[in-house]
Amino acid sequence: MKMQIKARVLRSGQHIKRISERLTSSLAKDVLIETSTTKGVITLNRPNSLNALTLSMIEKLSTTLKSWEKEKSLMIIKGYGSRAFCAGGDMKEALKNKAEMAQKFYTLVKHISEYQIPYVSLIDGITMGGGAGLSVHGRFRVATERTVFAMPESTIGHFPDVGASYFLPRLAENLGYYLGLTGNRLNGYEVVKAGIATHFCESLRLPKLEKALLECKKPSACVGHILDAFSATSLKKEVGSSFGAQLEQIKFCFGANTVEGIVERLVGEKSEWAQKTLGRMRTLSPTVLKIIKKELDEGANKCLKECLCMEYRLVINMSLNHDHDFNEGVRAMLVDKDRKPRWIPATLEEVTTNMVDRHFKPLARDMELKL
């Protein structure tokens, strides 16, 4: 009897060890890939870093998307855990490999925008910066009540990229200028209203939605209908939002031709929202605010490819110029975390046209982004 119990314990221990080994192996991967004969699911798997993207993740995504476009009829991309879809690029790695990371990520963004099979991103949780790049340019974007969307680059003395110069100025009511300049956030209901997400699904229903998508026979014909059905049911339970009340103010204030004009309109509005927004903008780099305004103005008249090429010039020129405000923003917000950046120049009036325009200069032909 003792021998039988010992044998069962031993077998149980070996079984647990095998499960543990499988889980360790799975969780060690920063991109989890699941496939069936005709469909694929990608899970960004760095939950402790809010699924922030590294260079190796971007490379894996690029390789997988290329092969699946020929082999699959549907792909889904999501984040591991409940906190984030993707919080953007991993800043430590981005600082080391800035040009290479931008080149490979922008190429991936362009591929996503042209993807030939249904591309569904489940933007559950934090979706910022690079997370927007992975989702907004795809055909279907599903938000949840946990979605927190932002392009927060201005807070570290940088500009919104990964195609933001294309999609932000195309949002109605000057909302894109507001988001790009302030870095402020939208919730899941608001991103649907804004058109950033195409559909909405309560987070508890995401497993059912994913199952329905993976079981559909002809994704090219039925994915949209499945998402519509889930979205219609979920949006009936919409909670309150102040988004609608602010739209008129956003449209007016952020419709000014210059950053100084935006500030002047905010000063004149007197509302609590306007004063909060004004306070926020006064903490940001004056130079970067003017760079972002020019970036979005130019992006409004460019195709996505041209926008990505412009953004790449901005990345490289910032590096070549050893841009003070970006380095200072990283120091204040990410390294020392004193949240007291010292911008140079310190005021909008001191920022000259030349200081802005030099960031947009064409690169040497062999340095330009090739898409």
TrEMBL record:
It is found in: Mitochondrion. Pathway: Amino-acid degradation; L-valine degradation. It catalyses: 3-hydroxy-2-methylpropanoyl-CoA + H2O = 3-hydroxy-2-methylpropanoate + CoA + H(+). One of its GO terms (cellular component) is mitochondrion. Its main location: mitochondrion. GO terms for biological process: L-valine catabolic process. Its EC number is 3.1.2.4. InterPro entries: ClpP/crotonase-like_dom_sf, ECH_dom, HIBYL-CoA-H. Belongs to the enoyl-CoA hydratase/isomerase family. CDD domains: crotonase-like. PANTHER family: 3-HYDROXYISOBUTYRYL-COA HYDROLASE, MITOCHONDRIAL (PTHR43176:SF3), 3-HYDROXYISOBUTYRYL-COA HYDROLASE-RELATED (PTHR43176). Hydrolyzes 3-hydroxyisobutyryl-CoA (HIBYL-CoA), a saline catabolite. Has high activity toward isobutyryl-CoA. Could be an isobutyryl-CoA dehydrogenase that functions in valine catabolism. Also hydrolyzes 3-hydroxypropanoyl-CoA. Keywords: Branched-chain amino acid catabolism, Hydrolase, Mitochondrion. This is 3-hydroxyisobutyryl-CoA hydrolase, mitochondrial.
